[in-house]
Amino acid sequence: xxxxxxxxxxxxxxxxxxxxxxxxxxxxxxxxxxxxxxxxxxxxxxxxxxxxxxxxxxxxxxxxxxxxxxxxxxxxxxxxxxxxxxxxxxxxxxxxxxxxxxxxxxxxxxxxxx
Amino acid sequence: xxxxxxxxxxxxxxxxxxxxxxxxxxxxxxxxxxxxxxxxxxxxxxxxxxxxxxxxxxxxxxxxxxxxxxxxxxxxxxxxxxxxxxxxxxxxxxxxxxxxxxxxxxxxxxx
Lengths: 114, 111
Prior knowledge:
Chain A has 114 residues and is mostly beta strands. In chain A, 0% of the residues lie in helices and 55% in strands. Chain B has strands spanning 4-6, 9-13, 18-24, 29-37, 43-50, 55-58, 61-66, 71-76, 85-93, 99-101, 105-110.
């Protein structure tokens, strides 16, 4: 298993540009989520999905869109990048079965918006 | 809204025990988690505890939960230099999929 993979590792955008951060997992986890990590603020949930075709907003969803057409993939789209979206983005997947939880985070995407 | 708080820094000597503390506000939190983040990496789930438990031990890690005070702690026995990292506490509320993370505690282990 490759676990949770994220691409790209690093990206520089200009204000107003759009881009998609990719996230994939090969563990057949139902739950996937996107977080942003900013200094001194811990991780904040952007969007999450509990299965293919089902997504919902987290704590800070504005400026981001997601879709979940397959169990494996959960891309995060920035429609019109703003400097306030400069952050490190983490994708995570989770499975809870038989009273046991397994959870994995991707290595992160560092985004700089100029 | 719900909040999770942690102290920012902790420094211990190699071989000593480390205790990292966390408080949370949501009394309906059903699961409480501890994660470790090493520089430039994602978060690694270390352990978690159900809200109906008081304690959970996993090798060098001991989690204590005081539900009345909404206080969670992570004790690392025989702390090693490889334990130097940022440790995050997180809570999951009942009936939701929304995790609330603390700001992280940076643990520095001195040789």
